[in-house]
Each structure stands twice: as structure tokens, then as C-alpha cells.
Amino acid sequence: MYYIQLDPSFIWDSDNTLKNVVKVLKGANPNTFEVINDYYSKDDKNIFYISWIVEKEPLIKGVDIKTFEVLNNEFSKDKNNVYFGTDREEDLDSKSFEILNLNSQNRNGYYVKDKNGIYFLRTDDIATYFNKITDKGEFLNDFYIKDNDYVYCNEDVLNEADPKTFKVINQHSSRAEDKNHKYEYCKVVK
After folding, report:
1. β-pairing, 69-70 with 47-49?
2. Are 175 and 182 within 8 A, CB to CB?
3. Which residue of 67, 103, 107, 186 has the fewest CB atoms within a 10 Å radius of its CB?
4. What Rg do the C-alpha atoms of the chain give, in angstroms?
5. What is each CA distance from 134 to 25, 28, 59, 91, 140, in whole angstroms?
6. Is pTM beyond 0.70 here?
7. Are 122 and 108 in contact (CB under 8 A)?
8. What is the pLDDT of residues 71-115, one digit of tens each?
9. What is the pLDDT of residue 21?
10. Low-confidence ranges of the chain (pLDDT < 50)
11. Is 130 left (phi over 0), alpha (psi -120 to 50) or beta?
12. Sheet harboring 129-134: ordered strands across?
């Protein structure tokens, strides 16, 4: 929720419910301020990202406002860069960037790809990082990716898995199988 006022030095909160959640967007122009979604907002010169999970400076620095686009609640991009929250991900190619598990919820992270490969972004820790998994591969579902040599679950190689026969049982679950085993939550179960 956003409150726009011309004098940002005063916000009245009669029952103290906003304590710890009201943030003043320093440098925001209230005359041109717009809410993009629950996390992103903008004015005529800036893009802001606010997450209740992470306490960071909300300004996305160096963004090209004219080409800026929100991809989901955490990823955005412009013609030059990909952003995760307010962090610029300089190793990712903005023009070819794509989130593979865009609709996933309650997972350990995201599978993303660009022209240089497929990456896993672990988001279950305070520190986030991209780990390149493979140059080329096939996204199977929110848990699994495979290439000619390996099957991956999150960022880990499933050493027992046969990539040629590996398939997911259900697009929305962690169950999978190959000619040798059955898998669930990235582990051999049979």
C-alpha cells in the first residue's frame, strides 16, 4: 500500500499499525508517482522496489525508465540489464532473459535462462546467487532441468538419473522417473 503526500515528513498512523512498514521513498516525486504493482513503483525519473522481506534501499539504480518492464514480483529488466529486486544482475543478457518457472510458488528458487545458458537462482537464503547449470538444456518443470549429460534438481546434479529416459510424472510435482529409478523431491525413492 502506498500513501502519496506532498509533505513526506508527516504520516499519521492512529492505531500504530503502520509502524515498521511505512517507508519514505527518498527522492520520489509525488506529482508523478505511480504504483506499478505491490512491489514496484515509479516516478518521472526513478523506479522503486519495496519488499517486506528484505530491508534494502528501494531505488533501482541506473535503470532505463523508458524500457523498464516488470517480469514478476522479483524480476524486472530494461534494455541493458536484468534486476532481481534492486540488484543488477550484470552476467545475464537482458534481451534474451526469460524466467522458466514463472508461476512457481514455495520453491527454493528460480530457473532462468538467457542466450548463454540456464541458471538456478537460489532464494531460500538471505543471500541470493545465480549458479549456471548448463549451456543448453530442457526445462521439465519447477524442479527439473536436463541436458544431454545430466538431470538437475534445483542446482544439483542427480547422479543416478539417466537424462535420455528421465521424465516428470506430473508437471506440478517433484515426482519423476527414468529407466532405473523413481524420484521425488530430488531424491531416489525406488
Report:
1. unpaired
2. yes
3. 103
4. 20
5. 39, 41, 32, 15, 14
6. yes
7. yes
8. 998 899 999 999 999 999 988 999 999 999 876 654 678 899 999
9. 54
10. 8-14, 106
11. beta
12. 98-99, 109-114, 117-122, 129-134
